[in-house]
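Figure 2 data, in text form.
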Amino acid sequence: MDRGRSRKKGRESKISRQEAAQQCVAVFDTTFFKALCEPARVAVLQEVVLLGRADVATIAERRPQDRSVITRHLQQLAMAGIVIAEKEGRHVFYRVDAAAIGKRLEGILAITQMLEAAMSSNVPGKSGARLT
Protein backbone atom coordinates (compact mmCIF):
# COMPACT_ATOMS: atom_id res chain seq x y z
CA MET A 1 0.00 0.00 0.00
CA ASP A 2 2.81 2.42 0.87
CA ARG A 3 4.58 1.60 -2.39
CA GLY A 4 1.57 2.70 -4.42
CA ARG A 5 1.40 5.95 -2.52
CA SER A 6 5.09 6.69 -3.00
CA ARG A 7 4.90 5.97 -6.72
CA LYS A 8 1.84 8.15 -7.08
CA LYS A 9 3.49 10.89 -5.04
CA GLY A 10 6.58 10.66 -7.22
CA ARG A 11 4.50 11.09 -10.37
CA GLU A 12 2.70 14.11 -8.93
CA SER A 13 5.97 15.91 -8.21
CA LYS A 14 7.17 15.57 -11.82
CA ILE A 15 5.29 18.22 -13.73
CA SER A 16 6.30 20.35 -16.66
CA ARG A 17 7.40 23.93 -16.29
CA GLN A 18 4.22 25.07 -18.00
CA GLU A 19 2.04 23.15 -15.54
CA ALA A 20 4.11 24.45 -12.62
CA ALA A 21 3.83 28.02 -13.89
CA GLN A 22 0.06 27.70 -14.32
CA GLN A 23 -0.36 26.35 -10.80
CA CYS A 24 1.88 29.06 -9.37
CA VAL A 25 -0.06 31.84 -11.10
CA ALA A 26 -3.34 30.25 -10.03
CA VAL A 27 -2.21 30.38 -6.39
CA PHE A 28 -1.44 34.08 -6.58
CA ASP A 29 -4.67 34.86 -8.44
CA THR A 30 -6.93 33.88 -5.56
CA THR A 31 -9.24 35.76 -3.23
CA PHE A 32 -6.69 35.07 -0.47
CA PHE A 33 -3.97 37.18 -2.06
CA LYS A 34 -6.38 39.69 -3.57
CA ALA A 35 -7.75 40.34 -0.09
CA LEU A 36 -4.25 41.10 1.15
CA CYS A 37 -3.36 43.49 -1.70
CA GLU A 38 -5.29 46.41 -0.26
CA PRO A 39 -3.25 48.31 2.39
CA ALA A 40 -6.38 49.57 4.18
CA ARG A 41 -7.71 46.00 4.38
CA VAL A 42 -4.42 44.76 5.79
CA ALA A 43 -4.66 47.53 8.40
CA VAL A 44 -8.14 46.29 9.34
CA LEU A 45 -6.76 42.74 9.59
CA GLN A 46 -4.01 44.05 11.84
CA GLU A 47 -6.64 45.52 14.15
CA VAL A 48 -8.41 42.16 14.33
CA VAL A 49 -5.10 40.49 15.19
CA LEU A 50 -4.36 43.09 17.89
CA LEU A 51 -7.85 42.92 19.39
CA GLY A 52 -8.20 39.13 19.10
CA ARG A 53 -11.94 39.32 18.50
CA ALA A 54 -13.90 42.45 17.75
CA ASP A 55 -17.02 43.87 16.17
CA VAL A 56 -17.10 46.49 13.43
CA ALA A 57 -17.74 49.37 15.85
CA THR A 58 -14.65 48.55 17.93
CA ILE A 59 -12.44 48.26 14.85
CA ALA A 60 -13.91 51.44 13.31
CA GLU A 61 -13.01 53.41 16.45
CA ARG A 62 -9.37 52.60 15.74
CA ARG A 63 -9.39 53.30 11.98
CA PRO A 64 -10.02 56.51 9.99
CA GLN A 65 -12.47 54.85 7.57
CA ASP A 66 -16.25 54.81 7.94
CA ARG A 67 -17.90 51.76 9.46
CA SER A 68 -19.31 50.79 6.05
CA VAL A 69 -15.78 50.66 4.60
CA ILE A 70 -14.53 48.62 7.57
CA THR A 71 -17.48 46.24 7.11
CA ARG A 72 -16.67 45.78 3.43
CA HIS A 73 -13.01 45.04 4.23
CA LEU A 74 -14.02 42.50 6.87
CA GLN A 75 -16.43 40.82 4.45
CA GLN A 76 -13.64 40.50 1.88
CA LEU A 77 -11.33 39.01 4.52
CA ALA A 78 -14.06 36.56 5.54
CA MET A 79 -14.71 35.52 1.92
CA ALA A 80 -10.99 34.88 1.54
CA GLY A 81 -10.99 32.64 4.61
CA ILE A 82 -8.71 34.94 6.59
CA VAL A 83 -11.19 35.90 9.30
CA ILE A 84 -14.28 34.25 10.73
CA ALA A 85 -17.49 36.21 11.29
CA GLU A 86 -19.58 35.15 14.28
CA LYS A 87 -23.00 36.70 14.75
CA GLU A 88 -24.18 37.33 18.30
CA GLY A 89 -27.51 39.08 18.46
CA ARG A 90 -27.25 42.25 16.39
CA HIS A 91 -23.45 42.26 16.40
CA VAL A 92 -20.99 40.43 14.18
CA PHE A 93 -17.64 39.67 15.75
CA TYR A 94 -14.56 38.90 13.70
CA ARG A 95 -11.48 36.88 14.57
CA VAL A 96 -8.53 35.57 12.59
CA ASP A 97 -8.95 32.03 11.23
CA ALA A 98 -5.40 30.88 11.93
CA ALA A 99 -6.10 27.24 11.05
CA ALA A 100 -7.45 28.15 7.60
CA ILE A 101 -4.53 30.50 6.95
CA GLY A 102 -2.09 27.75 7.96
CA LYS A 103 -3.70 25.24 5.58
CA ARG A 104 -3.61 27.80 2.77
CA LEU A 105 0.07 28.51 3.38
CA GLU A 106 0.85 24.77 3.47
CA GLY A 107 -0.83 24.43 0.07
CA ILE A 108 1.20 27.32 -1.28
CA LEU A 109 4.38 25.72 0.04
CA ALA A 110 3.50 22.43 -1.68
CA ILE A 111 2.95 24.18 -5.01
CA THR A 112 6.18 26.12 -4.55
CA GLN A 113 8.05 22.86 -3.97
CA MET A 114 6.53 21.38 -7.15
CA LEU A 115 7.61 24.51 -9.02
CA GLU A 116 11.13 24.20 -7.64
CA ALA A 117 11.28 20.52 -8.68
CA ALA A 118 10.02 21.34 -12.17
CA MET A 119 12.55 24.13 -12.55
CA SER A 120 15.53 22.12 -11.28
CA SER A 121 14.71 19.06 -13.40
CA ASN A 122 14.47 21.16 -16.57
CA VAL A 123 17.54 23.36 -16.25
CA PRO A 124 19.20 23.97 -19.65
CA GLY A 125 22.80 22.85 -19.80
CA LYS A 126 22.40 19.87 -17.47
CA SER A 127 23.09 16.59 -19.20
CA GLY A 128 19.89 14.94 -20.27
CA ALA A 129 17.75 17.87 -19.19
CA ARG A 130 15.28 19.30 -21.61
CA LEU A 131 12.72 22.06 -21.48
CA THR A 132 9.10 21.05 -21.70
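Caption note: Confidence is low (pLDDT under 50) at residues 1-13, 126-132.
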